[in-house]
Amino acid sequence: MGYLNVRKEDGVALVWLDEPESPVNKLSTPVLGEFEAALGELEGDGDIRAAVLISAKKDSFVVGADIEEFSRLKTPGEVEGIIRKGHELLGRMESSSKPVVAAIHGPAVGGGLELALACHYRIATDHPATRFAFPEVMLGLLPALGGTQRFTRLVGVQRALEIITTGRNVYPSQAKKMGLVDALIHPEGLADAAKRAALSLAGGTLKPRRRRPSLRERVLEETPLDRLVYDRAYKTAREKTRGNYPAVPKIIECIRTGQKEGAEAGFEAEREAFAALLFTPESKALRNLFFLKNGAEKNPYAGREREVRTVGVLGAGLMGSGIAQVSAARASRKVLLKDASLELAAKGRGEVWKALSRRVGRGMSAFERDRAVERIVPIGDYAPLARADLVIEAIPEDLNLKHETIREVEKVGREDLIIASNTSAIPIAEIAAAAERPERVVGMHYFSPVPRMPLLEVVRKEDTPEWVLATCIREGLAQGKTVITVNDGPGFYTTRILSFYINEALLLLEEGAAVDAIDEAMMDFGFPVGPLKLLDEVGIDTGVKINEVMRPLFEARSLRTSDRGGEVVAAGYKGRKSGRGFYLYEGRDKGKVNPEVYEFLGTGRRPIPSRAIQERLSMMMVSEAVRCLEEGILASHRDGDVGAVFGLGFAPFRGGPFWYLDQMGLERAVVKLNNLRSAHGERFAPPTLLEERAASGKGFYSS
């Protein structure tokens, strides 16, 4: 059975899209061949008056092009040839005398959205699963099947620029309002409504109503003043990407070309730009991450997990309420949410309601929000946890408090209860020391804010049974997380490499670097936020507690550490939560550097080159990542790249620490570290594993 299954009903060809042996539909060269043959039959069949494209998949239309196929291509010429055929096919469908209706339920993204744009009419379901997007920019690419041209003609230049350059989702009501879809319908009526629309289009009784641009839009987009729109787009792109994502200016260029020189010139610009971008180091890194992320969304221990129906969450603050939210709303689990009092637990449930209310109309209905919140039950004592299959503690980073909590949970919990700690640094073995059944104590390290941050770091001890691991991974996946599994140790993987990175930032401060100079340098490198701003957001006091946990690791290697964070906290500067930290968060100077922190740093400010800051901080982080692989904290370099990018914000276009080292060249990395070692001390000594790999000529991905 092929990708397309054509059924003829009442003069309409219902073209069902159903990629064999795949949960979703993708576009590939063979699929385009099937479309071409089907289009030929449609045009030649006198009994067929119109066609409907509709997916046979559950809650999914078409999710885009087959990225693996494009990644196998060797030359820009090959790429342009495939895209040209795609342009010809969609152009032929668009100009067909027999109308084609796209009946959309679920995601229509990337090439799937471009396929729908070439149809004469689009009807979509109003279901939360339905969304539209151009995610190509996240792979360092751009829409190349006419998306920059047809979408812009439908919704206008300014809206097209904003949506295509960010890859953001558009939901059904928004799509209808902007003119992307012509009609909305409930899922059960989609096929019939699409058939009626197709016949009405063929009979001339239905004509698509296209959105009329406002006077302001016409002035800014259809007159010489349009240069203001493009100039602003280029400026915004530079500010947001810091020049690190070449796809964004190429998208602007393609849209501008199409508007100025016509659609055919725009299509040609798309082909050339996509073919060039595909071979850039940025796109290669981003596509590798895409494949790694997909791999981390599978359970390597599938089949050994036990069923979880009820999850206990201890602590109803920011982290605890976030864990409760993803457990209830994404995983559909019943959640028992406990805090020091029933009132605090109820407040945490209220925060979940507020958070989900912001998502209503954006992939969630009010009914789904209410159902999710109803699954969360605030509790004031431990007794109800007797019904829990999994308990996740998200209480303060105090080992004695965690020990006490585990004892209380075990008093009421079943013998097969799994207790997971959300600690970010304390070794799980130390937490489990208080347990009667320590083998069932595991780490589930989430990142803040939990509903938005994709990573979950599951931490195993030597005695962790595979069924416990399998169950925790399955829960993380059900919560919508990208999961890596690491071995136990201070800071595990992510907190460990982050603590070395932040320690180096604090040492730079002691040497005279300015707060904003450090943060700006690392944002230019590709981090979404600088290390000192990050410390403010996490809480400098929290950072100090983590540093205490990590101290034995530093001391065992006789490494220099900074104690300035503790002095800053002692003076009352804890970051955003106290109104001031390295930056000010209140008053007239809100957002500026807090000059008072310099009083604790013991030296005047002096200029340190941005490149020197970037090299010290990035090489410190990536070398510690290699040590984690060397010591067995990481099972693979792939997990290391996933963890650093999706948990810590390591520059995605650099691919993660191990991909970054491979692209740099391991011999060059060893030289860099030795130079830094000579200038700044033993903490920059190259890891043995890195030296061995460099000597063998093998990279992490090429071995």
TrEMBL record:
It comes from the Bacteria. GO terms for molecular function: enoyl-CoA hydratase activity; long-chain (3S)-3-hydroxyacyl-CoA dehydrogenase (NAD+) activity; NAD+ binding. Residues 491-585 form the 3-hydroxyacyl-CoA dehydrogenase C-terminal domain. It catalyses: a (3S)-3-hydroxyacyl-CoA + NAD(+) = a 3-oxoacyl-CoA + NADH + H(+). GO terms for biological process: fatty acid beta-oxidation. SUPFAM superfamilies: 6-phosphogluconate dehydrogenase C-terminal domain-like, ClpP/crotonase, NAD(P)-binding Rossmann-fold domains. Residues 310-488 form the 3-hydroxyacyl-CoA dehydrogenase NAD binding domain. CDD domains: crotonase-like. Keywords: Fatty acid metabolism, Lipid degradation, Lipid metabolism, Lyase, Multifunctional enzyme, NAD, Oxidoreductase. Pfam families: 3HCDH, 3HCDH_N, ECH_1. Its EC number is 4.2.1.17. The keyword Zinc does not apply. Pathway: Lipid metabolism; fatty acid beta-oxidation; Lipid metabolism; butanoate metabolism. Belongs to the enoyl-CoA hydratase/isomerase family. This is enoyl-CoA hydratase. It comes from Rubrobacter taiwanensis.
